[in-house]
Amino acid sequence: MTVNEYQKLAMTTLNKDLSKKDILINGVMGLCGESGEVIDIVKKWLAQGHELNREQLIKELGDVAWYLAEAATALDVPLEDVLRANIEKLKKI
After folding, report:
1. Residue 31, CB half-sphere, CA atoms under 13 Å: how many?
2. What does the alpha-carbon distance between residue 26 and residue 23 come to, in Å, rounded to a whole number?
């Protein structure tokens, strides 16, 4: 599956009643929340002596991907363009 195919499939679960503004707000808030869940798993591993819960970490990273796709959709931009632009930015560093 390509990243744009993922975006299209993931957005079939998007709440169709939301405005573009609400989709963007939900997307960026969701990114913050899911990123917090990702770091909490890593914190438990690094600072609290737990085993790294790889399965849960992978699930949470999937949630991060969903919200990233949602934010890109709100901006009417293919997710591939977001990722390509990021690589171009990184090449300049």
Report:
1. 12
2. 5
